[in-house]
Automatic annotation (TrEMBL):
This is Response regulator receiver domain-containing protein. GO terms for biological process: phosphorelay signal transduction system; regulation of DNA-templated transcription. Residues 4-118 form the Response regulatory domain. It comes from Pedobacter westerhofensis. One of its GO terms (molecular function) is ATP binding. InterPro entries: AAA+_ATPase, AAA_lid_NorR, CheY-like_superfamily, P-loop_NTPase, Sig_transdc_resp-reg_receiver, Sigma_54_int, Sigma_54_int_dom_ATP-bd_1, Sigma_54_int_dom_ATP-bd_2. The lineage of its organism: Bacteria, Pseudomonadati, Bacteroidota, Sphingobacteriia, Sphingobacteriales. Residues 313-542 form the Sigma-54 factor interaction domain. The modification 4-aspartylphosphate is found at residue 54. The keyword Translocase does not apply. SMART domains: AAA, REC. It comes from the Bacteria. Coiled coil: none annotated. Transmembrane segments: none annotated.
């Protein structure tokens, strides 16, 4: 059966051109709508498989407004726009489109965008249906379980719903506060799979109020605000159920992230309202068992606050836990993953975790640093080459994709790939085949791609340095890792982990971290993130006598480049030249401070908080030679 596509475009010439191209390609065109109001009628009548949506529609509702409606109905859409500025792309990103096309576009661009959209739709639909089936099964098992008390059932509901509705706090009850009755109970998330139970007594202890104080502080109808204020939550979602007895019970979801909840979250709760009502009725019947005494439920604290499923990732900050939730969800599928975050935030560890808990865990995990390989060699490195393909190719060689057969390839610093290679990578993603350099024979590969970058790809696309189609093909399932400055509550656990690690390595006793060092670490901005923290702890352990607590031996201050001569800028070429000179002068100044050493403690790579291979690549690109630096070393 032909796939149906609705065109929502107020420029008739553009819309008609799209219609002709789609029909020629074998698609069924549901219609052309010039406004969101017309689009509503087509959607109700035809329920299209996909919508081509002008982002700047005339009328009461824009394309962005229309996108929210399409999301709620699980209809895929591709934006059409006259430009791809960073602002437009970032605005579009919030609505999770399946693609983005910039006018004017070629027939080939449209067909590639549609291929990518169908891939994204297939993977998201399959994942959603599988998760929904699992949730249905879990809720039925909870309802049928006669051995668990009310608290136990609530905990199992909490874990089951977490996959679909993210939260830092979940509350169940009637949402009313009375002087003689407090029906709400809650679970506060304190770790990846750890929850703290909070009933009336626990809440009053945390809030510092007695029963009379609770009633006086909050009106009966504002109990949800009470929870939000007490735990400093930024967003909430309230979902009510009416039980067969006529009793109304509500589930309240709270998050520390702003504007987290959307129509999608409400839609999934509505989908399972029948099952949720059934299990809630069973929970209410055993309500008398709620007051048993076990405040923390879940795995006990790991001695290093690490997560056993996630390759030693340390911390329990809500932003980190949200990223780990996504990591666990996507690991079971073959979809490509894009890991975003600043340098030093742990992108490689997340990539390895995706592989290690996936069905591909027994196959190879191959890591490629795209920024460390010269542009002239990157194609051969990734796809392999035939004998005689270029000077020095004395034998046939497999590339990294073939080495990763059946497993996972991790393309770190994907934003560094040259545009020509980006086009070839897109073909691999679409066709699942490669060509050796020097050969026209395609070779099928079964490899999962996980990519990572510290760049803002929307800006890279807007500036013409990254392909828009590749961005949407990779961005099927993005995971954003927070910088360390946004998860400072994890610094003590991370510092303790690194301190223990280096004390064992250097055969020294660990006597704790001094209060002054703890204060300085908490006050610092950490531009180099976790990698910089690790370097600081290694240095502190090396300089420690093994008998006293660790202290900082030098101030935590940012590194700055040596002053440059002011150059007169007149043209774009002048800007590029000055940018190159500035970066070169900065790297030379750091290399001088490191006495020419790139690697090891005190080396230039450590001072810059980047990988040595990345620094070596930059040195080669900028043409820095030994003569620029005295005492050149490695």
């Amino acid at each position: 059966m032909k796939k149906s596509i609705l065109i929502v475009e107020d420029e008739f010439v553009v819309a008609n051109s799209l219609r002709l191209t789609l029909k020629q390609a074998g698609y069924q065109v549901a219609g052309i709508a010039a406004s969101s109001e017309e689009a509503d009628e087509y959607i109700q009548k035809h329920k299209p498989d996909l919508v081509l949506l002008d982002i700047r529609l005339n009328g009461k509702r824009s394309g962005i407004d229309m996108a929210r409606i399409l999301n709620a109905q699980n209809i895929a859409f591709i934006y059409l726009s006259a430009n791809s500025s960073q602002k437009i792309l970032e605005e579009a990103k919030k609505t999770e489109p399946y693609g983005f096309m910039v006018k004017p576009y070629r027939e080939k661009d449209l067909l590639v965008a549609l291929d990518i959209a169908w891939y994204r739709q297939k993977n998201s639909t399959e994942a959603r249906l599988l998760q929904e089936k699992q949730l249905q099964k879990q809720l039925q098992e909870i309802a049928d379980d006669t051995s668990s008390d009310a608290r136990g059932k609530f905990l199992r509901i909490t874990r089951a719903l977490r996959v679909f509705v993210p939260f830092d706090l979940i509350v169940s009850g009637n949402g009313q506060l009375h002087s003689d009755q407090f029906t709400d109970s809650a679970y506060l998330r304190i770790g990846f799979d750890e929850f703290q139970y909070i009933g009336e007594q626990e809440f009053m202890t945390i809030a510092g109020l007695d029963k009379n104080g609770l009633v006086k502080s909050y009106p009966a109808e504002s109990v949800d605000q009470m929870w939000q204020d007490c735990f400093k939550m930024e967003s909430k979602l309230i979902f009510q159920l009416e039980l067969s007895t006529g009793t109304v019970v509500q589930y309240s979801f709270y998050s520390r992230q702003r504007d987290l909840y959307t129509e999608k979250h409400t839609a999934i709760l509505k989908l399972f309202s029948s099952c949720l009502t059934k299990v809630t009725e069973k929970m209410v019947l055993t309500e008398s068992a709620v007051h048993s005494k076990t405040p923390v439920v879940g795995r006990p604290d790991h001695e290093e606050s690490g997560h056993l499923e996630f390759n030693g990732i340390i911390g329990n900050h809500p932003l980190l836990l949200a990223a780990l939730d996504l990591t666990k969800q996507v690991a079971q599928y073959n979809t490509s993953v894009l890991i975003l975050g600043e340098s030093g935030t742990g992108k490689e560890k997340v990539a390895r975790s995706i592989h290690s808990i996936s069905p591909r865990s027994d196959a190879p995990f191959i890591e490629v640093n795209c920024g460390a390989i010269p542009p002239t060699l990157i194609e051969s490195e990734l796809f392999g080459h035939e004998r005689g393909a270029f000077t020095g190719a004395t034998e046939r060689r497999k590339g990294r994709f073939e080495q990763a057969e059946g497993g996972t390839i991790f393309l770190d610093e994907i934003g560094e790939l040259p545009l020509e290679m980006q086009a070839k990578l897109l073909r691999v993603l679409q066709e699942k085949e490669i060509n050796h350099v020097g050969s026209n024979v395609p070779r099928k590969v079964d490899v999962r791609i996980v990519a990572a970058t510290n760049r803002v790809l929307e800006k890279e696309v807007a500036d013409g340095r990254f392909r828009l189609d590749l961005y949407y093909r990779l961005n099927v399932f993005p995971i954003t890792l927070p910088p360390l400055r946004d998860r400072k509550s994890d610094i003590p656990a991370l510092a303790s982990f690194f301190a223990n690690k280096f004390c064992k390595e250097f055969n020294k006793d660990f006597n704790g971290i001094s209060p002054s060092m703890t204060e300085e670490m908490d006050a610092y901005h950490w531009p180099g993130n976790i990698r910089e923290l690790e370097n600081v702890l290694e240095r502190s352990v090396i300089l420690n006598d093994g008998k006293s607590a660790l202290h900082l031996k030098q101030n935590l201050i940012g590194k700055t480049a040596e002053p440059l001569e002011v150059s007169y800028v007149e043209t774009l070429d002048d800007v590029r030249r000055l940018q190159r000179e500035t970066e070169k002068a900065y790297l030379v100044s750091i290399l001088k401070k490191a006495q020419g050493r790139i690697r090891g403690t005190g080396g230039a790579a450590e001072l810059l908080n980047i990988k040595p291979t990345t620094l070596e690549s930059k040195i080669a690109k900028l043409g820095i030679v030994k003569g620029d630096i005295s005492g050149w070393g490695s």
